[in-house]
Amino acid sequence: MEDLRKKLIKCEERLTYLTQIKAGEDWGNISGFQEQLANIRDSFYDLEKEKIQKKVKSLEEGLTFLELRCEESLTPMERVRIVRSPLRFSLKDILENVYEDYTELGGAEETNIDPSMVVAKANILRRAKNKNFTQQVMVIGQEKGHGEEYRNGGSCKPWGNEKALRYMQVAQTEGIPIHFYIFTPGSFPVEDYPGAAQQIARNIYTLAKLRVPIISMISEGGSGGAEAIGLSDFRLMCSHGYYSVISPEGAAAIEGKIREGQKVPGELIESCAERLHITAEDNFKLGTIDRIVEEVVLGAKHDDFSFFKRLRYEVMRATDEVVLKTKSLRAFRAYELKLEKSGERAMDDPQIDISWDLNQDELKRLIQQRSKKYRLMASDAFSSRATNLTSLIQRVKHKTSNMYYSFRYDILRSQQKQVKQVIKDVSGESSVFFKQLTAPFSAAYDFIARKPDGKNIKLPLSGTSGGALEFGDTYTSPLANEDRTVTCPNTEKYGCRDLWVPDLYGEFCGVCENCGHHFPLEYEWYLKHLLDRNSIREFNRSISAGNPLSSPGFEKQLKAAILKTKRQSAIITLEARLMGVEIVVAMLYSNFRNGTVGAAEGEKFVLACEKAKLKRRPFLAYIHTTGGIRIQEGTLGVVQMPKCTIAVREYVDSGGLYIVVYDNNSYAGPVASFLGCSHYQFAIRSSRIGFAGPRVIRETTGSDIPPDYHSARNALKRGHIQGIWDRRDFRRNLHKALHTMGGRNLYYR
Amino acid sequence: MKEKILIANRGEIAIRIAEACQDLGLDFVMVYTPADEDSEHVRRYLDSKSTKNKAWRISSYTDSNEILSIADYTKCTAIHPGYGFFSEDFRFARRVTIRNRPLIFIGPKWEVIRDLGDKINTKRVANKLGIPTIPGTDAPIYNEMEAEAIAEHIFEKQKIQEIAEPSVLVKAAAGGGGMGIEEVHQLEQFRRVYRQIQNYAKRQFGDGGVLIEQCLRDYNHLEVQLVCSRHGERVYFGTRNCTIQSTGRQKRVEAAPGFDSSCFPYDFNPQEVLDKIVKYSLKLASHVKYDNVGTWEWIVARDGSPYLLEVNTRIQVENDVSARISYLKKKHPNLIREQIRLALGDKMGYSQKKIKFKGACIEFRVVAEDTRRGFLPWIGTISRFNFPQHEWSAVYTHVPFTRPYVIPSDYDPNLALAIVWGANVDEVKERGRRFLNEIIIEGKNGKGEPILTNIPYLKDNIDNLLKF
Amino acid sequence: MKDTYINEILEKYRADPFGYIDSHTIHTGRIRFFVKKDEEVSGLSGEWHHIPGTKLYSLHREGNEKPTFSKSSGIVSSIRNDLEGKFVEAGEKVITIRYPLKKREIIEEILRQVLAPFKAPERAKYFFSLDVQSRIEKFGQRSVMVRPGDEILTMSLMKRDTPIYYQGEPGIIHSVYFQQGITVEQDEPLLGICPADKLPVIQKVITRVKAEWE
Lengths: 749, 468, 214
What we know:
Strand order of the largest sheet of chain C: 1-8-6-3
Mean pLDDT of chain B: 92
Number of strands of chain C: 16
CATH superfamily of the largest domain in chain B: ATP-grasp fold, B domain
Number of domains of chain B: 3
CATH superfamily of the largest domain in chain C: RNA polymerase II/Efflux pump adaptor protein, barrel-sandwich hybrid domain
Oligomer: heterotrimer
Low-confidence stretches of chain C: none
Distance between the termini of chain C: 23 Å
Structural class of chain B: alpha+beta
Number of helices of chain C: 4
Helix content of chain B: 25-40%
Radius of gyration of chain C: 20 Å
CATH architecture of the largest domain in chain C: Beta Barrel
Helix content of chain C: 10-25%
Distance between the termini of chain B: 51 Å
């Protein structure tokens, strides 16, 4: 009887789970089953055992059938509900069941800087030739369960992500692989130090070149929160998980322009979940993940031990593969072959012994392969209208200029350095005696060294003085063509007079003359006033934002944006001069889909990085406005975060000077990656910088924020940016920044 | 079309403009702030019962939106800015003239206000035309070596001129009003001071540009009154001497003509110098196509060498001083009237030859202030206010004669302008003394102390007029 | 201070337990009202006083429609409906808001009699001296002790700033009666200074009003 009772309870559990997945909808006669169950329960002690047994059995069979039917037709939103179910397995279950033993680091359970982020040093068992080996790994991931009350739903605080970063570096020191487990609906959007966006950016920036194999597994991959521990050499995803740029509810609220506090219609959420391409299969097709880990029917729960076994096999295999790829292709092939041969048996006992230690060369290859992997992500998700011929010409040009620049900078420069060092050493010792000797020599040397292109980067420290607005008369904002006045938002505080629009947007450059408040100006203004006249050469203009997920209705919106801006994407990349200094500029601007970043924007940004690297030019990212990752591109948009950050990291490591200047509004993904990782970030006055806007903060944290929460001033206070610039001094300040940060060569080293 | 003038100013000038409008048969509108409710310029034109309200309450004289709002509502077609406030604000003039409902700005065209409002630019243009300016730079200097070379040159020149205490002024180019100015007496100190000012300018104004000038001492401050029309006609109404100023560089006594041999044995021929500055002033005016009233300010050193200081592109407080030594058809002209008439597009109707200069004139600015304590403004209530009346004097004031008046604390405590004229300087000085003695001003402040005015100071300075 | 005196004041407030706030037009323009007589209005709200109150009226001037919001909650007790859609001058009284007096305000009013007033020496604008201002910001107004001879205020008069030194008994700044940058008439109290020995009296007033006023 006891046995039967247990079975019945199990049935009840399964039925509840089904109801949850179906969100209470009466599907497949769930209510009938519920009735049946109630019947059995009510008459449990009245009927004889056999009858009950029969009834339970038929109930079980019916349920199994129902579950299979449900599994076959799982909608994306149902998968989201599976992932959010309290029954779903969590990180602690993995630590218990996949690894041999483990020690939690950086706090334990509730006594923790951030209980939503769990870090543990763990051992994983490998059997080969009937011997047991343990291999150490660093396990990092979000935890939602096993103490739900303090886990914050797996939504990490900035300091939780910071903890993760610390232990990533420990793994690097110890040379052990990292296994990331992603169980997060998103990061907790608070700006408190170290700041949600900034910390994620730091994590991604570090991961770009972290010298250990990194494997990640996604169960719940909520955008930025996922990326904080998501950049990896091999990305696994659970078959019932989801990986998305935004929660379906959030997307629906934006899509349906739902006002705060109002209910978002369920159908809209369903269709948004569909459109976002969030399932494992979708992501595999898009190339944003590398392999799917099969779960049991309707997803793995706390106690699905077969799943943990499979997971153990998959993470080991992924680690092995990453390691082997750095060694030789041959070893990798042999490994694959062996696995294939052993078939299903491999899961229990692959009987292959592979060391996870890598030597210097292998590490170098590991990083290269990681970079290449991300470089190629989402490369089909935009269109470039360059014809074959032009692209051929471009390729040739690229090759030749590559040779030219590497000759000019790498070969010549190293010699130059040597010669200079000698001169320095010699003249340093007894300058009086040697001055006469070295002076003509160094002069001759300078002459030769300057020869290759005849126009060495000049140091325009003198001569280009004058006001901030040298070309003030050449361009006036079209906003100025109206005879009316506007009220300064600070009028109450500082008694500002109403501003006459032609003065404000003309001579005053959109700045209140009394309090210095900056009214927004169009990006064209900056093109005209920031950069030297006639020095702008735009490139990659033809790379065009697309609709890779065929999101319904988006095609039209995109066309409208293209028509309105006469541009193909939300980013403008250009080469230009600033007071004589050659720079490369990437500019996200508001008119095109609110400056959101998708595959085209990411690609253009990476290409600009590469150009700056090739030509040894300082690189400016001027963010007129960015609204985050373009949600219509789903995870293809999300992967722009690591993709662009890797490009930035490579540029900076090669000696580049990367400066970010924020204006108007800069939020979300880009700030939490390739912008926020810059060592030198500045903001134009009256701009706002942050991770999530006030509404999202209210909705996720449940508390309100002060109106100036995201102000540049507060960003400076928190240490996110290095300074606030007046728009009118932008040109001068940037020029100064290039020199003070860039040093003699306007390029780090 | 009949023009209607909005008078965007307060106090005595508002009244003078209103009277000029009445003389010309033009309708006009006054504006005022609550603090001025009891001033004559308001009371005289405010009639709450009448529908023909001529005075309108605004929040501030310096808010252009208020001025234009009233101008539009009252259907004014022109704005007279008076002096101070918007008179030299080229942005205001520009807005007034280019807005959807354009108005006539009674003053020079805005481009001229802008170009001559920039002292450095004025100096550059003047130098180009061969008009002397104070020796020094006419553009901001950013380079220390260059700056020192200029300073050295200025010291050299002073040595040649045998100036007793040669010195150089180092000024922040973006500064003004006495901020960021240092005097250097020896070239050796120059670099230190230069760096100090440069740092100050960088910190304060975000621009490290520095100006270097010879420091002039022992000079007279002269003015040339020009009147120009929109049709390229330009005449002058003599010269004035405004050397007597308070510690805050506020003029207190002005006299015309600019020099008079009866006052001081000049080292130069006074008439020649006066002619010279008039000639130069007209030259610059014609170069910039000046088209309304304006004052060219000059510094004349003890040896008679003139230096152009700046151009005031407005009607000045002391304009009547010039008018009282000038005769058009045997009558004193009214320069405010001329200004309005010409700004509205009239032709001048006379040439320089028709303007006769005769006699002398002094203007006293009667101010409630403690001249012995740094010209500290005095606040209180005036209970008695009486000025003598003569056919050789005039008084311009907004202070009522018939009722007590509380001096508003929001503005300068100017009480009245008193003007006396006569056949020659001696006679005018005598009349001036007599006039000042006849003034009766009584009043008390909050503590019950009697009113303080600068009348004793004015009397004391009569003998200092036109001297070095 | 006598109890009877406090009674008297309390009696007065019982008879008319309302405060009145007049709204004057801040500048010229064409006026449009958004409330009606006897309508309930709300004042500033939100944790940071960042949510404006009820829109009372707007002034249209030079192409700019500028709204004025109610600063406090209450009822529109008078409104110049005759001006609707008309051009008004600056400083015109257009709306009066009546609101029930709060305990704090009644206490403040009674304390005016108890506290040593520091009066305006001239009709001028007043500001706290930089030192006092920073101490207020740091420690809060009622923790700032003033002694005779302290530079406590800056008087802005005729475009000149004159330092004002405190005279009178030493004490804490209990109440501030002026607004920075707004002209204060001569002899109007600027500050209410509370000497240490008067603290019990003040406490008594506060408890009484709190007990008797609901």
